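Quick question, first post here. What does this chain look like in 3D?
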Amino acid sequence: MTYKEQLDYSRIPQHIAIIMDGNGRWAKNKGKRRGEGHIAGASALHDTMMNASKLGVKYVTVYAFSTENWTRPDEEVNGLMALLFEKLDLGIFMDNDIRFCVIGDTDRLPEKVRERMNKCIDLSANNKRGTLTVALSYSSKWEITRAAKCIALKVQQGELDVNAITDQTIDEHLCTSFMPDPDLLIRTGGETRMSNYLLWQCAYTELYFCDTYWPDFDEEALCKAIYTFQQRERRFGKTSEQVAEENDNK
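> Answer (accepted):
Ran it through. Tokens below.
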């Protein structure tokens, strides 16, 4: 029996975050250039977006390019930017009723990439089936620092009482304020770290690590991750007994 056949469709995660790792190693293992791995990874992203939407996932957020990735060789960075420009196809989002969003320090992106990106964001804004958010030139430390500066400025200007600052205040000043925190975070490629990704938002996210390189991450791999998620008990700091009682009272 496949993992897809074993899924409980009443417990599909609302939001899945993904660290798409392993493009370069996938290419190396096949005797290809790293750039060819990123091309294959772009195709895998399209397929995963569609597969997740069909399963009922409302939000998919993917880590495409970190602030630290700017330190990679110019050839690879330029290739990634060119690929991003080529693969931002508005038709994909409009034809499938998918909203496109971006989080990160996008001022650092090439102008032509920003222009195409903003066009996709604006024209897909009212799409309802699902939301694909791409983290570009992003890191959690950058995001939290940015939020802290915004909050500090409001306190300085008398718009916010420092004693009124809560967790929700932080949430409202993060790039992800328009969507719920991830239920499940998937990292492909065999590494088991967060790599400065959605650290605040993933406080109670279920983590799933697999050895599959991102270009090979197919529908069954996605279903396996969701199936594993469904086998876990999410307690959010409570006891198992409390969770069971709450479920009985629903």
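Residues 34-55 form the longest helix (22 residues).
The longest strand covers residues 130-138.
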